[in-house]
Amino acid sequence: MQSDRQETLSRRDLLSLVGAVAGGAAMYQAMTSLGFASESGYKGPVKLDGDAKGASVLVLGAGLAGMTAALELRKAGYKVQVLEFNRRPGGRNWTIRGGDSFTELGGQTQNCEFEQGLYLNPGPWRIPYHHRAVLDYCKRLNVALEPFVQLNHNALLHGTGAFGGQPQRIRDIKTDFQGHVSELLAKATQQGKLDEVVSVEDKEILLQAMKSWGALDKNYAYKASLISADFRGYAKDPGGGLGAAPVAGEPIAMSDILRSRMWRYLQNFALHEFQTTMFQPVGGMDMIGKAFARQVGDLIRYDAKVTRIQQDGGGVSVSFIDAKAPGTPQVAKADWCVCTIPLSILSQIQIDVGAPMKAAIDAVPYASAVKVGLQFKRRFWEEDEAIYGGITYTDLPIRQIAYPNSGFNRSGRGVLLGAYIFEGANAFEFTSMPPADRVKRAVAFGSRIHPQYGSEFENGVAVAWHRVPFTLGCAGNWTEKAREEHYDDLCQIDGRIVLAGEHASYIPAWQEGAILSSLDAITRLHDRVVRT
Amino acid sequence: MQSDRQETLSRRDLLSLVGAVAGGAAMYQAMTSLGFASESGYKGPVKLDGDAKGASVLVLGAGLAGMTAALELRKAGYKVQVLEFNRRPGGRNWTIRGGDSFTELGGQTQNCEFEQGLYLNPGPWRIPYHHRAVLDYCKRLNVALEPFVQLNHNALLHGTGAFGGQPQRIRDIKTDFQGHVSELLAKATQQGKLDEVVSVEDKEILLQAMKSWGALDKNYAYKASLISADFRGYAKDPGGGLGAAPVAGEPIAMSDILRSRMWRYLQNFALHEFQTTMFQPVGGMDMIGKAFARQVGDLIRYDAKVTRIQQDGGGVSVSFIDAKAPGTPQVAKADWCVCTIPLSILSQIQIDVGAPMKAAIDAVPYASAVKVGLQFKRRFWEEDEAIYGGITYTDLPIRQIAYPNSGFNRSGRGVLLGAYIFEGANAFEFTSMPPADRVKRAVAFGSRIHPQYGSEFENGVAVAWHRVPFTLGCAGNWTEKAREEHYDDLCQIDGRIVLAGEHASYIPAWQEGAILSSLDAITRLHDRVVRT
Fold first, then answer.
1. Taking CB atoms and an 8 Å cut-off, how many pairs form between chains A and B?
2. Inter-chain contact B242–A409, Cβ cutoff 8 Å?
3. Which CATH number fits the domain that encloses residue A181?
């Protein structure tokens, strides 16, 4: 939040003082208590001032980290060349549409048959409002955004062992849970059981608050009434004309909610990384990669599979072969190298770096993830069930069903995300199946939640990230211990080589991590060049 | 939710039985507990089967209720004519754009200077997913929809007497309140204070649930930590490269939240009528009215101010004058009349109906509401404060600041809703001011929340609904008592006249109420015609 100038200045002085005396953490806490917004690592377009001295940089990988580096380094005066394994820009910033084909590790090829305009984002699919770097590049590169619906109150929670397998509306579980919690706390407050921790003055306000927040009646009870129905929805909605009075439904009992464990899913709507307002690029996530490529596409050599990364005092030499027609290695040379190759791949490539960075490269396992896109003849989730966008969660192996966030309320075909399995045994199980079986299984499981699957399904595609040749996994899966031991070694400049990508960030698996990591890496590299 | 056929059938049998034995309310509750979706009053396109016998209908008002009646009755074989006071269709379904001018009661004219593409919806501005009738007409009439953001976690709550007048992020108040509630309940549970109401088995699950839902640490405490920061946001966001570790901020103390009364606003994000997924038509709410008019525009006589409504055994005669050039009244005749004129106006028109309907017409006061649209040179709320759509709430007279839900992340000008005052003394105070003063005051108050107002404001428009000539108020404001005494009398067919509009519904002030009321009215009218 911006404040008036004078107030801001005096606050800044105060903060500097706090920072100098008590250190960074205390300063950030002081900032928060003074009402400042949280601080993003992104401070606006990177400024690489100073002479690049005609130096050259070889960027490995044309994902968002690589293309960010290419764009900003060229602008700063460097000679830039990019080597990319795929025949397209973007890396994991990727959208599959009808007509696309994709061959995974093991040789299975899928040809996507989606209708024109429908798509699956197999990798990143949403952008939080606090991912300031991604949003700023979208703005600078003219990528149109639309809201991504994370929480749809009318989507479903499903547990195979809960409520007889009958899916529940998120709004019912969410509202009823909060209502029962409020009733319990209000009753305890009334009975004086919180007197030790709640002051007399606050006690009365707490009761009012529980009534307001928990949809309690005048006796602080959460039960069937038009009060609770105003929050959870009605058994019969209010209407127009005669016979139009609403009818309240019966809330779900607290014990049933507790034992269903469905409260676990409510986190997904409260976590900062999933809070409104989230975005998706209009038309598919790869609109971002394509927008970057409009700027730096001329620097990219596609189909280039890196086989060896060498450096000495004079520069960097990178050997590569044609990924589609392997032959004699070629060599690209530059003064410096920004390497954004995922660690899962890089750990298999011979690279001249010191032992600490090499150990770091080898230390990070990659997360497993599977996404399945399914095309249906009609958007039955909207037409039959009033589910517009958002995500249904289930304990079935498919874990999630996510409904499209564009083309709302239209007739015709639709593609939904029929499975999003992140980590765990199910992800590995799905990865081990042929793609057609993944699709078949997603349809079979999903039809237990949406019986319409049976008659409406048309075709699908399934991406298992451990079988994606250019990453062999979804994202760097740091443990706390590995991060402590290796993270700084991974990010240090090693001679003439610096690494970047989501794996070199504290925001793993998010595009913001890739871009911020790249900006940090090239800023340090540029400092070194300028100072040399 | 749809279930497989056999299961559905047997459930239907059961429900019929419950309905027959125990009545409607019990049936609806049984439906809910059996996992059915809530029942909307809208069952899909209205079916007016049977012979209209060449009968004619005069529809008064070309708002959504009137145009729904016109569209469906013509389709059913009636001769339809519509009289409309304004020179445009839609009524309160209205969008103001640059170039529009509007004269309010009292004679003040405003000429809107918004940049092309920017607009204010002075009336309805959002559509809940459960407003099935509005959504179905949008679908049938090809009105494109986009999400309306009701809850933006990064928008603000502001209290003049709270936190020194410093606005708070919604996410902080929302997360911290829930966290503290969870801590209080967890502690009471641990100390055995809920043993009377929570079983031993549930107690352990409740503790787990409070930890998960309330972002508590392993000691069930809600305090500064990366656990709470994962929900409320960080003092320093996680970043990329070196020095990128996140820093947690200090939660706001429970007592401070309680005394700030900011918990009152959290209702606005939980009520069923404001739950995700909400919509707005792309380009302005009047896209709906315009879409209706593409179907029935040929039936509408604009600038027709109704002065008298007469009926006898033979038909209905409605006198009207040219609203822009009053002169000798003309008379329109038909067999039947669907009158959608707001009660605030209708109560001032001589109408031949029985005493019960006349008493009902006179019994409903109209709600007061003021909306102010403000154009700024740039979308500073996005650029400076990362607020994309959604609503800031304040106890200042402007009550709300709502940010536009389209054109996200774009450069250039933007229009926000600088005040939305619904009922209360402030609404009347703003209504009493000249429009230019309303705008000036909205800017002055808003600048206490967004200091950028001062340098970025360009122009504005202000609509005070009690001064809008075609409604003299925002919407029917039923009390429970008035509804009990008069509602059914208002909705009954009186001879050859039936009323429709949001005022004849249980969803006042919403477009859904207008359409459902109209569908109910014409269904009953048609039944009468067919049976006659």
1. 400
2. no
3. 1.20.1440.240
